[in-house]
């Protein structure tokens, strides 16, 4: 709604709005064109984090995970002794555009050996190898993928996770700055398929700090730590956003 005195002022107001709208459209077009240019750059498939070798007690599950990058469409394959492994009564394969997980649901002696992972697309491929050792003994926990520094926005959520190997049952505890975290309406702690998860909702600056995961079983324990940084929205972005919103949709008096 605009309060305008005189027809010339009305013209001036609409010229202002038109110029702002054109400016926003040019900015949008530049960003869109840049994104389109980037989209046409084809990135070969590349493994960013290789699977780590693990030792497990016979009968326990074993988990191997790889993280990768590359332009879609990406194809992934897990193999043992040259044979491709797929989801079934013995294996579970879960893949996204950035990672792939192989779960051996209940290990047997015959599962010991080398496992090969391959990710590929139209312009390249990448492979890695990891060893699974199935033993007749209790194995202490070990982190095969540790916590890393994580950044998130105030008001959103954070998802921390780390991958474990070792004999079950494994007890997992989470700490922030040496204070234990328990599941409540803000925090959710879970341990599933050898992966420990901590989800934190409604983030604020007080959630920034050092987080530690400690895994324990009868044979011993292991731990890893990582930092979480909670950031606010960029002030320059907020000024731009509210200025354009006010100019286009707000109230102006002349």
Automatic annotation (TrEMBL):
Protein name: Ig-like domain-containing protein
Cellular component annotations (GO), alphabetically ordered: plasma membrane
Matches recorded under Pfam families: I-set
Organism annotation: Salmo trutta (Brown trout)
Keyword rRNA-binding assigned: no
Membrane-spanning segments: none
Single biological process term from Gene Ontology: homophilic cell adhesion via plasma membrane adhesion molecules
Phylogenetic classification of the source organism: Eukaryota, Metazoa, Chordata, Craniata, Vertebrata
Entries under InterPro entries matching the protein: Cell_Adh-Cytoskel_Orgn (IPR050958), Ig-like_dom (IPR007110), Ig-like_dom_sf (IPR036179), Ig-like_fold (IPR013783), Ig_I-set (IPR013098), Ig_sub (IPR003599), Ig_sub2 (IPR003598)
Keyword line: Disulfide bond, Signal
Sequence ranges assigned to domain Ig-like in this UniProt record: 44-133, 141-217
Entries under PROSITE patterns matching the protein: IG_LIKE
């Amino acid at each position: 709604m605009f309060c305008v005195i005189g027809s010339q002022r009305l013209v001036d107001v609409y010229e202002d709005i038109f110029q702002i709208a054109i400016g926003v459209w040019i900015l949008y077009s530049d960003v869109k064109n840049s994104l389109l240019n980037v989209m046409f750059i084809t990135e070969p498939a590349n493994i960013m984090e290789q699977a780590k070798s693990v030792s497990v007690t016979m009968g326990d599950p074993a988990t191997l995970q790889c993280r990768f990058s590359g332009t879609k469409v990406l194809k992934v394959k897990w193999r043992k002794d040259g044979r491709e492994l797929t989801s079934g009564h013995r294996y579970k394969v879960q893949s996204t555009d950035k990672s792939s997980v192989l779960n051996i649901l209940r290990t047997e002696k015959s599962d010991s050996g080398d496992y090969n992972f391959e990710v590929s697309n139209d312009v390249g491929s990448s492979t890695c190898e990891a060893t699974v050792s199935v033993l007749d003994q209790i194995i202490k926990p070990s982190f095969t993928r540790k916590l890393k520094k994580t950044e998130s926005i105030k008001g959103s959520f954070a998802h921390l996770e780390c991958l474990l190997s070792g004999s079950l049952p494994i007890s997992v505890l989470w700490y922030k700055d040496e204070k234990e975290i328990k599941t409540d309406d803000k925090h959710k702690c879970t341990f599933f398929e050898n992966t420990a998860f901590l989800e934190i909702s409604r983030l604020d600056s007080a959630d920034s700090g050092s987080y530690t995961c400690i895994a324990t079983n009868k044979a011993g324990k292991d731990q890893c730590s990582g930092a979480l940084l909670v950031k606010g929205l960029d002030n320059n972005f907020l000024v731009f956003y509210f200025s354009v919103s006010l100019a286009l949709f707000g109230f102006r008096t002349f």
